[in-house]
# Entry
Amino acid sequence: MTSEEYIRQQISAGYGIHMHDNIWWQENFPLFYKPVNFFESFNPGAARPIRIKSLFGYSHFVSDQKYANDVRPMMILNEEALNKFSLPGLSKNKRTRIRKGLALNEVRRIDDIERVIKDIQKICISMSSRSHNGRPPEYYSEKYGEWKSFMIKEFSLPNREWWGVFHNGSLIAYRYAVLIDDTMHFRATKSRTDFLDKCPNDALMYAVLNYCKDNSECRQVSAGPWNASKYSINKFKEQFGFERVDFPAYAKYSPFIIFVKRLLSLKVSSMSLSKA
# Structure
């Protein structure tokens, strides 16, 4: 799918998107925007979202480091690494975990989300309880109807990749991805804590990367941002060949957001000192 097709899909799905200065912008969080085409780069001042919509600010990649005031570290499996990807090329421990995951589970596309929506709910609750990120565990029960409608809407969008790991007929892990231009973007990967000993994440990553390798339209894979606070997740991705790539970026924040960021930074520093 081209970036233009993706943008049209996002608009039709009701996301907060608008065109300004010849760039399509999407709301990343309330009153803060980024280009819909994630890797689109241009110099500061060349474009920005509508001011009234972006009161908290905006950010985008830049083509030249000298224009950057920020950096966006991403986990990327480049074209060369993707073409060379194979089971023998991985570590012995990783090969063992992949073989175990494939032996104990079935990895395949999800063809009907409504048939597995309750399993996905269990996965999301488990993942939220384990990671303490994103929505709280109770959200998936208290706001079940709202969440289910959102998931069905996402699943109904054309040219999306939904892959699942099934153990004894039950979905225990899934990955949601989308191929835009030549890059496969991993949007969400979640698994149930009580089935981690079955190695579902290893089997899922292996199967999806093989699919990407065999897809002539895919030249690289983006597994999302590198995060300093998520060492184990970064390490897991690195074991499959992903590398951290620092993209130069420009970010414009409102004074309020700058104040909040400084406050959070001081809080983190204070917590680190208290643990020393």
Confidence is low (pLDDT under 50) at residues 266-276. The CA atoms of residues 79 and 219 lie 5 Å apart. The first strand starts at residue 17 and ends at 20.
